[in-house]
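Sample 3 of the quickstart, ligand FE2/S2 (inorganic) cluster:
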Amino acid sequence: MSSKWRGTQAAKGTVCKTVIRRFESAPRLIPGQFVTIRCGTGTEPLLRRPFAVHRVNREEKSFEILYEIKGEGTRFLSQYEEADDLDILGPLGNGFKIDLNIKNAILVAGGIGIAPLTFLAEELVKEKINVTLILGSKTKLDIPLSAIGYKLLICTEDGSEGTKGLATDLLNEFVRAQNFAPLQIYACGPKAMLKAVAQITNCQVSLEEIMACGVGACLGCAVKTKDGYKMVCKDGPVFNSEDIIW
Ligand code: FES
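Result:
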């Protein structure tokens, strides 16, 4: 057992990272997939919490999750810097699809929505695809970031970091500058941002919904699509933006 404790209780809103070690399924994780974790030692909280996979080390059979402390469950987890003895279910859900024929990709993240897009960016770079990741937020975020092999552009609504404005403003500029050259576009973040991205261009979106079971049994994460209701946990979380009824 090699779980490492941070030993301190971080405040609500703090962004934390936990490395999950000795996870046998790590080598087959796909960007956009998630796991659910029992975030406590007793019966509370009762429900597992879903976490997008942030980065993977296939050789070491480990992966990272990046999350914001919102309540009891995430606070429990934030005390682990590394863990190998948590009750984890996964990989779950369907991840992003990568088109190896399209050599330019733009990824649009809203706040903590950067978690799965970092993993995606690293996989795209391995496939020799040029990646620009746009991270938008209301104000400067305290997120540990390292963009290796791709371009990271930051924008904030209040101008406290990077360009002042919305991530969708930057996306608009990129799409226009490409002048209809083929682009792969991916987005993850708050629903309002995803809707705005979808209005600019067709893309793959990773939806965030409150989940209870995480495996398609409780119907708690249903979203309306052109093909009826779909479960974010089982049919997604990645969807084609044109299929969603926003
Ligand atoms: Fe239960 Fe998706 S969380 S069906």
